[in-house]
Amino acid sequence: MGIAQYDIVSKGDGWAIQHDGSIGMAYFSKEAAFEAAAAAASLAIRDGHEVIVRAPSRDAGNKTALGVKDSQTA
Fold first, then answer.
1. What's the average pLDDT block by block, 10 residues per block, for the chain (74 residues)?
2. DSSP symbol at 27
3. Which of 1, 16, 25, 41 is found 20 to 30 A from 34 (Cα to Cα)?
């Protein structure tokens, strides 16, 4: 089996998952993109793949922990 790698990347004002060289749909927050990547990774584990999920620190995107402006989290 191969490696299934999911990278959370900044996409416009939101976030997306990069997998197999493709960037998928946009998510509102880094946390939402991570949760979607974790669900996909769970399926990959069932198929016998090694799994890597990477999420950037607050230094990426708009420089906040969840990747959304503080006024958007309320």
1. 94 93 94 97 97 92 78 52
2. B
3. 1
